[in-house]
Amino acid sequence: MKLLYFAWVRERVGRAEEEAEAPAGVSTVAELIEWLRGRGPEYEHAFEAGPAIRAAIDKRHARADAPIAGAREIAFFPPMTGG
Amino acid sequence: MKLLYFAWVRERVGRAEEEAEAPAGVSTVAELIEWLRGRGPEYEHAFEAGPAIRAAIDKRHARADAPIAGAREIAFFPPMTGG
Amino acid sequence: MTVRLQTEPFDLGAEVARLTDGRSDVGAVVTFMGVCRDRTDSGAELVALTLEHYPGMVEDELSRIEAEARARWSLADALVIHRHGRILAGEPIVLVVTLAPHRAAAFEAAEFLMDYLKTSAPFWKQEETADGRSWVAAKATDDAAADRWKK
Amino acid sequence: MTVRLQTEPFDLGAEVARLTDGRSDVGAVVTFMGVCRDRTDSGAELVALTLEHYPGMVEDELSRIEAEARARWSLADALVIHRHGRILAGEPIVLVVTLAPHRAAAFEAAEFLMDYLKTSAPFWKQEETADGRSWVAAKATDDAAADRWKK
């Protein structure tokens, strides 16, 4: 699947998007975040805020317990500040 | 003092303004309305709605129990419908 | 801070531009424009409204309402324009503009100004339909809307 | 009903005129314009904001918010314009316009649209001051404002 990062999550990860395949057993947004944190210090730094990081699955807001099976695109970003 | 009438109160009284001297004992807006009602059928018709008629003393909203002593101008009108 | 009573129509865009041009300390601008609808509340076709007012008192009352809004909210600026006389269906009747650092104050002050204009400014609307003219009755919902601001 | 994402500024007066011209069934028009202030919340001088967005999702989300407003209130029309990219102090960022028969619906729908834009549309503001750039933190007051619409 494609992973996208926005705002300071993007800056900390050091890239705007990448392809990734999560291993078996990683089945929710929260589990995907835990797996990403183990990939290196830049991911650890980006996701250290834990539940403050928001996610979207295929361009729709998704909660931490949302299943990721079948997702084509998962985005991570800080709380929104538009308007 | 000067009495002013607006909207359908004006139409029922048949004039927009007039000079009047209320007799002794007429000391509040409510008493002034009672006295006016006795002046003729056009006043009776204009004021038959009783408390629904609003008043202003010297261009400020006044309640039925407001004293009229010293007033230069008292206006009577239906509830407002601006905006 | 301005209140204006006039017979001619107004231009919402020009009024907002005049209030905002050259200033960058304002984060929120709210406008309310009341327009003459082409139907009465009972569904009859409306040709025009005629707004009667109490000269002298209406200016005082608009200023009082506007001063009360400024006392309650921290507004950078505010404008109230109210027309009187004959107003055709589709024409604007009233304009309220509020400028504030943040949106909550701008929205609340604009709603407050409208609720008080409706229930306290000495204007009376007369509707003109094919059947003739008739005075618009005050609405209980307008009184209820104004009551929510009472402390 | 329209939602628009754009980099260029917009003209409030022209947008309202386009929505209202030729129609006389609308009694109430409410607009909200968010403007880039020249100070950060901590008081530093602000040169500009840069708004990052999530292409694709932002259009979907604006449309979802606007559809939700139409489902909740009887609106004659509505418009949402949101800019992205670099926005200088004093320039407009966002415009919401609601048209309804009566004012309560127009005001409520405009506030709802703004509350949801703030907390749900995927935009992120970066402030540019003499000290450099920094991301704006989300406000708890914005979450609280959006929560009031939850049934």
From TrEMBL, chains A, B:
Transmembrane segments: none
InterPro entries named among the record's database cross-references: Beta-grasp_dom_sf, Mopterin_synth/thiamin_S_b, ThiS/MoaD-like
Gene3D superfamilies: 3.10.20.30
Alphabetized NCBIfam families for the sequence: moaD (TIGR01682)
Protein known as: Molybdopterin synthase sulfur carrier subunit
TrEMBL record, chains C, D:
Pathway the protein contributes to: Cofactor biosynthesis; molybdopterin biosynthesis
Subunit structure: Heterotetramer of 2 MoaD subunits and 2 MoaE subunits. Also stable as homodimer. The enzyme changes between these two forms during catalysis.
Family: Belongs to the MoaE family.
CDD domains registered for this protein in UniProt: MoaE
PANTHER family assigned to the protein according to its UniProt record, in alphabetical order: MOLYBDOPTERIN SYNTHASE RELATED
GO biological process: Mo-molybdopterin cofactor biosynthetic process
InterPro entries given in the database record: MoaE_sf, Mopterin_biosynth_MoaE
Lineage of the species this protein comes from: Bacteria, Pseudomonadati, Pseudomonadota, Alphaproteobacteria, Hyphomicrobiales
EC number: 2.8.1.12
UniProt KW keywords: Molybdenum cofactor biosynthesis, Transferase
Protein name stated in the entry: Molybdopterin synthase catalytic subunit
Organism in which the protein naturally occurs: Hansschlegelia beijingensis
A GO molecular function held by the record: molybdopterin synthase activity
Enzyme class: transferase
Reaction(s) this enzyme catalyzes, per UniProt: 2 [molybdopterin-synthase sulfur-carrier protein]-C-terminal-Gly-aminoethanethioate + cyclic pyranopterin phosphate + H2O = molybdopterin + 2 [molybdopterin-synthase sulfur-carrier protein]-C-terminal Gly-Gly + 2 H(+)
Function: Converts molybdopterin precursor Z into molybdopterin. This requires the incorporation of two sulfur atoms into precursor Z to generate a dithiolene group. The sulfur is provided by MoaD.
